[in-house]
Structures are given as structure tokens and as C-alpha cells.
Amino acid sequence: MNKLGIIIQARTGSTRLPSKMILPFYGNDGILSILLSRLTQCKLADSIIVATTSSSPDDAICDLVREHRVKCFRGDENDVLDRFIQAARYYGISKIIRICADNPFLDIESLDSLILASENIDADYVSFCTSNHTPTIKTHFGFWAEYVTLAALELVARKTAEKVYHEHVTNYIYTHPNDFKIILNPIPADLEKRTIRLTIDTLTDFRIQQKIFQAVFEVNPRFTIKDVVSYLDGHACLYATMDEIIKSNQK
Fold it and tell me: Which of 93, 95, 86 shows the shortest CA–CA distance to 166?
């Protein structure tokens, strides 16, 4: 078992924005549907898996996943770490690209580079990071995925039963760097200077990002970070709005 798979965590039970995965975001498509469609541009993973919960409201997630003809796994609603471990084991995945489904602006070019890098290194965890070495999963950008091995996740499960580490899949790894081989790749400095928030947690996020997505997608359906930033630079008032939202939604 040495396969690399993309695992996307998704559920309908968000407390701040219920059913955000399936609410119409662009046309009739929700953000999970959009993300799955965009991931067809990535040809380097052995499989794409959506890891949702065993709760009945998430039947809708499974129905959507089947429409996109990708794999689905159902597991514990609260123990997301275990859900990832069981999904990887079930589908024979030893190397995982973890994606959060509330990031419709995920950058496919960066995803490809992350997958290619993982093929040539011996690491437990690989992520993009800010200048202070914060993994981008802890930021508000919403552009990047992260790489982790199944073995590293299994080690976390053995080491701790603390709720925070079972809710946030990779948190234990990057907060205990002496226990794991970690590689952090810095994001461009000019990008870090911008107050960008493109992860969707609230209705305000949803509405702002609907407009941004429509604007960039209709110009280039295979848009990159550069396209998104170019649009934001041309609508600089959005940075101030995002800055306020970031301050009220600290990770």
C-alpha cells in the first residue's frame, strides 16, 4: 500500500452556516460540487475520496459525491482524525492530500506541486506556510492543501485522546515538530502581505466569495492564485472587509 489519495472532509452540520456544502454557490452548484469539478484538473492522485459523517443529514453529501463519480467514506462526526484514518485504510491510501471542502478557491497548480514534492521526499507532513512558519491550514487564505502520511495520523491517534487533536486532523503534528519529520514551504511574501480570506465559515463569507468566484471563474474556469489576487487588487475594498472578518474569526 503506497497509494496517494486526496481526502476531502465535508459535512452539512456546520454550526455557523448549516448545509454550506450544498447551498447554491455558483449557478445551481454548491461549494463541494465546485471543488470536485475543479479537482478533475489534478491528474496526479490515485483517487479522490470525500470523508463525510455517518449522520443521516449527510446522505446529501453521499448523493452528491456519487454524481461526481468519486469515492465516499462515512465515519465519526466528531472524531475527524479517526474518519481520515479509516477512510485511508478502507481505500488503501498511505499518503494523503488533505483538503477542506469549504475552500472553493483551492489552487490546483499548488496542489500539483505538493503532490509532486511528496513523491520525492521522506516526510510525515508537508505544508505551505507563512513567514513565521505557520502552516496555511491555520490561515484564512483558502488556497492550499496539506500532505500527511497515514502512519503519522495513526501515531497521533495512539499518542493522544485530546478532543482538539481529534477534531483538527493535523494539529498535533505541526504543534509537536520533534515527533515528526515536517517540511514547510513558504508562500510568496507579497501574497502574505494581503489580508485575504477565501475560506467559507459564515454567510458573510459565502456572499462575498460568491461574487469573487463568479468574476474570476467566468474569465478563466482554470483560474490560479494570480487571477484571484488580480481581481482582489482591482477591488481593494474587499481587503478591508476581509480584514474585519479575519479579526472576528481568529483560528
Answer: 86
Q: In terms of DSSP H, where are the helices of the chain?
A: 31-38, 59-67, 80-90, 108-119, 150-159, 163-167, 171-175, 189-192, 203-219, 225-234, 237-248
Contact call for residues 147 and 124 (beta carbons, < 8 A): no
Per-residue pLDDT reduced to its tens digit, 210-248: 999 999 999 999 999 999 999 999 999 999 999 999 999
Alpha-carbon distance of 248 to 195, in angstroms, equals 13
Sheet bearing 93-100, strands edge to edge: 71-75, 47-53, 3-9, 93-100, 146-149, 125-129, 182-186
Instruction: Give residues with Cβ within 8 angstroms of 103, minimum separation 6.
Output: 35, 142, 143, 198, 199, 200
Residue 126 · residue 117 · CB < 8 Å: yes
In DSSP terms, 93 is beta-bridged to 3
Name the CA radius of gyration of the chain, rounded.
17
Domain definitions of the chain by residue range: 3-195
For the chain, how many residues are written? 251
User: Measured over all CA atoms, what is the biggest interatomic distance in the chain, rounded to whole angstroms?
Assistant: 49
Strand-pairing partners, residue 125, are: 148, 182
DSSP 22: T
Q: What tens digit of pLDDT does each residue of 153-162 get? A: 999 999 999 9
> For 3-195, which CATH superfamily applies?
Spore Coat Polysaccharide Biosynthesis Protein SpsA; Chain A (3.90.550.10)
